[in-house]
Amino acid sequence: MRPQSGLSRDDMRTVFGALLAAVAAVLVSAGELPRGSYSKTCTLKPLGAGRDDTDQIEAAIAKCGHYGMTVFEPGQYNVTRKMTWDLVGSRVDMHGYLSFVPDIDYWLNASNTYRVVFIQNQASWFVVTGHDFVIDAHSSGGINGNGQPWWSHFHTVTREDGDGRPIAFTLKNVTRALVKDFRIESQPFWCNTVADSSEVVYDGMYCNATNQDPLYAGKNAVPNTDGINTYRSDKISLYNWDITCGDDCLAIKGNSTNIFAKHITCRGGNGIAFGSLGQYVDLPDIVDNVVLEDLKMIRLDPQVQPNMANGVYFKTWTGTVNSSPPTGGGGGGGHVSNVVTKGVSLDNVTVPVHVYQTNGGHSADAPSTLQFSNLSFIDWTGTSQRSTLVDIECSSGAPCPWMRFENFNVAPPVGTTATVKCVNVVSESGLPGCSTITTA
After folding, report:
1. Pick the catalytic residue: 196, 247, 248, 365?
2. How much is the pLDDT for 3?
3. d(CA 226, CA 183)
4. Per-residue pLDDT tens for 101-124?
5. Which end of the chain has fewer CB atoms at under 10 Å, N or C?
6. Residues 134-143, mean pLDDT to the nearest whole number
7. Tens digits of residue pLDDT in 81-104
8. Which has the closest alpha carbon to 321: 351, 282, 276?
9. What string of DSSP letters covers 119-132?
């Protein structure tokens, strides 16, 4: 008999239906108006090589960002300082790229970026706020992060969270928005973040962090180039993403609810992450109702990117506080529940499914109290580098109930026998060999 708190197949269909209805509502609300419906139009052309476009961009957004339309004609727009767009009832058509000059020392000065994303004190050089707007880059525009100098530089100095490397594209305090067919080339750090926002649809996102420096061939020269981190946000939908990176393709961070993603291609990196979570002892992390569907993990030429670590993985800090954020932390509570991963194709990933709750900790730490429950893995295919296909190691302080596997058909290396590892799992279905524990 299914535990009363678990989700049946009908329940899952209800979750899918509710999320899809929410997506449809956002698309209608944020959908494009006829061009003649906007009260004003601002059109920009690049000033040319070596010239600064920041002033003309800010002037156009100030004039047409509320109830107007802003059009970027093709070309590279040089941006030399941090920039915020406040968009209300408006549209931006980007046929060109915002090219952020790679002045590393300038951008690493904290006064030259925004710190609007609370988690890990991350920096942003470009922030969009507002409501009821569309940004359409027509698959021919977006952001050029000029990341290669950054990646090469940070092979010679220490990298750590909160060190000032800028997020390429940040949505903060946004409600009802559509970002469409947007390209981000060579992000120095995270490609996207959506924080403190709701009812946002990304339909078509391309991020490409590919090292071109021969000194670092065969190494992960592009760490921390996540496709997106969601944080403190609700009703976020991601369609048709193509991410080449050296870290998390998607990262679902704390207090992300009602997240829907479909048609996601991850090329290299760590796969799709839930976490890390539980880093802040006084701030519980709640992640609930997440549906990820039609996912592809593709291993690249190892000279370009050696990593393709996971299909989907879940991680928390331990229950002990070890130093303080952004580089340390732990002890935070909360839960992750009602997660569906469906239609997943794996190309020789290292560990297809992984759950662990010891991030940033030590063997003597207290166990995490953040619980994972009701995780579903449906219609998985492909190959694994290791014979351990599923490694679920839950905390003794919060054992995991309702781990569900259906049509999980991932192949281990030729000549090996598939194995699974389950630690502190209370209940599961469809995963032979998974040992469960009995709770009072």
Report:
1. 247
2. 41
3. 14
4. 999 999 999 999 999 999 889 999
5. C
6. 98
7. 999 999 999 999 999 999 999 999
8. 282
9. GGGEEESEEEEEEE
Would you state the pLDDT for residue 125? 98
The three-class DSSP label of residue 59 is helix
The neighbour count for residue 417, using CB atoms within 10 Å, is 7
Residue 120 phi/psi, 5-degree rounding, is: 60, 15
pLDDT of residue 27: 53
Residue for token pair 């010239």:
51
Tell me what pLDDT residue 437 has. Answer: 83
What's the Cα-to-Cα distance from 272 to each of 22, 352, 388, rounded to whole Å? 23, 10, 18
If you average pLDDT over residues 128-139, what whole number do you get?
Answer: 98
Sole residue written with tokens 């009908």 = 10
> In which residue are the tokens 């090589």 written?
49
Percentage of the chain exceeding pLDDT 70: 91
CA distances from 273 to 43, 73, 74, 285 (A): 39, 36, 35, 14
- Please, is 283 exposed, middle or buried when counting C-beta atoms within 10 Å of its C-beta (0-12, 13-18, 19+)? middle
Dihedral of the alpha carbons of 203, 204, 206, 207, in degrees to the nearest 10: 10
Convert the pLDDT of each residue in 238-266 to its tens digit.
999 999 999 999 999 999 999 999 999 99
What does each C-alpha distance from 154 to 147, 284, 306 come to in angstroms? Answer: 11, 32, 18
Q: Is 247 a catalytic residue?
A: yes
E strand spans, 152-303: 166-167, 169-185, 192-195, 198-208, 229-231, 233-244, 248-252, 256-267, 271-277, 285-298
pTM for the full predicted model = 0.94
* CA end-to-end span of the chain: 18
Q: Looking at the domain 9-429, which fold is it?
A: Pectate Lyase C-like (2.160.20)
Q: What is the CA radius of gyration of the chain?
A: 22
Query: 103-139 as b/e, with b when 16 or more CB fall inside 10 Å?
Result: ebeebbeeebbbebbbbbebbbbbbbbbbbbbbbbbe
Residue type, 102: P
Cα-flanking dihedrals φ and ψ of residue 380, to 5°? Answer: -100, 140
Which tokens in the block code for residue 102? Answer: 């790679």
How far is CA 406 from each of CA 271, 376, 380, 430, rounded to the nearest angstrom? 20, 8, 8, 6
Alpha carbon distance 127, 194 (integer Å): 10
Structure tokens at 94: 């980007």
Question: What are the structural domain ranges in the chain?
Answer: 9-429
Q: What mean pLDDT, rounded, does the chain reach?
A: 93
Q: What is the pLDDT of residue 37?
A: 82
